[in-house]
Design a protein that fits this description.
32% helix; alpha+beta; 30s Ribosomal Protein S19, Chain A; elongated; three-stranded mixed sheet; 3 strands
Length: 114
């Protein structure tokens, strides 16, 4: 369910206070645990450190993010990968092909220089 229109979007007041002291584009990270806060137009250009339960994930706010929540951009679950032994063999073969392609490109670049 979405928040009622008469109430307006939820933005943590402490977060707004931290933003007022800084200028947009400032490289410092503003740490926050408020994942439920909506992104307002005043937040554009700032970098937030959004807590995901373990550590802070840096989120640079752009115009397209306005209206979304901060928590949407700081994932709480880490995807490792699917598969087991077969998947590992496929990945190793792909990595080997990539290394061979890099070597071939490097040798062709060296021959062109001479």
């Amino acid at each position: 369910m979405t928040r009622s229109l008469k109430k307006g979007p939820y933005v943590d007041q402490r977060l707004i206070k931290k933003i007022q002291d800084k200028k947009p584009g400032d490289k410092s990270v503003i740490k926050t645990w408020s994942r439920a806060s909506s992104i307002s137009p005043e937040m554009v250009g700032f970098t937030f450190g959004v807590h995901n339960g373990k550590d802070f994930i840096s989120v640079y706010v752009t115009e397209e993010m306005v209206g979304h929540r901060l928590g949407e951009f700081s994932l709480t679950r880490k995807f490792t990968r699917h598969g087991g032994k077969m998947q590992k063999e496929i990945e190793m073969a792909a990595k080997q092909k990539e290394l061979e392609a890099a070597k071939a490109a490097k040798t062709s670049a060296e021959t062109k220089k001479k």
